[in-house]
Specification:
Layout (H helix, E strand, L loop, with lengths): L1 E7 L1 E2 L1 H17 L14 E7 L5 E10 L3 E7 L21 E5 L10 E2 L1 H15 L4 E9 L7 E10 L1
């Protein structure tokens, strides 16, 4: 029997703050990041997906942008444990999901994406769900897009 499950990406304010404090701490002490470390940029935030099922197949994205802009979603690998280690570049998965809304179409037109990359990205997330209960993502808000104007989810087929 197969059903569907739609999961919403949720902002992780505590982890976002910890990563911002890391940047601030390095700046205040005049230090540089560790070699290969990926620091959070000002226009980024950490989001999470909590999986209640482990046997999933990617179905589709549900991305809505209330205003023109670009949203880039980058997943982290299962090897990153945010409470223990800094985020390293090698722990970022490819491809990223890139979604955008052109000026004049915000809120009423379809959100555009690189279809093949979005499909592969969704499939990789489904694969990761088989070994993770939680997965973390970097959301980069660009070209006028912001957290308050984004609603993002991903749908899966549940394989029982």
């Amino acid at each position: 029997m197969t059903g569907t499950q739609e999961l919403s990406f949720r902002l992780d304010p505590q982890l976002t703050e910890v990563m911002r404090l890391r940047v601030q701490s390095l700046q205040q002490r005049g230090q540089k990041r560790q070699e290969g470390e990926r620091l959070l940029r000002p226009h980024e935030a950490v989001y999470r997906l909590d999986f209640t099922q482990q046997s999933l197949g990617f179905s589709h994205w549900g991305v809505r942008l209330a205003q023109p802009g670009r949203l880039t979603i980058t997943a982290t690998s299962q090897h990153w444990t945010p409470d223990l280690t800094h985020l390293m570049v090698r722990q970022l998965l490819e491809p990223a999901g890139v979604f955008w809304q052109a000026a004049g179409h915000a809120g009423d037109g379809p959100v555009q994406c690189y279809q093949a990359d979005a499909q592969e990205f969704g499939e990789r997330i489904a694969e990761m769900a088989s070994v993770r209960k939680v997965m973390y993502f970097l959301f980069a808000f660009e070209e006028g897009c912001g957290p308050e104007s984004v609603d993002c989810s991903i749908a899966f087929q549940v394989n029982n």
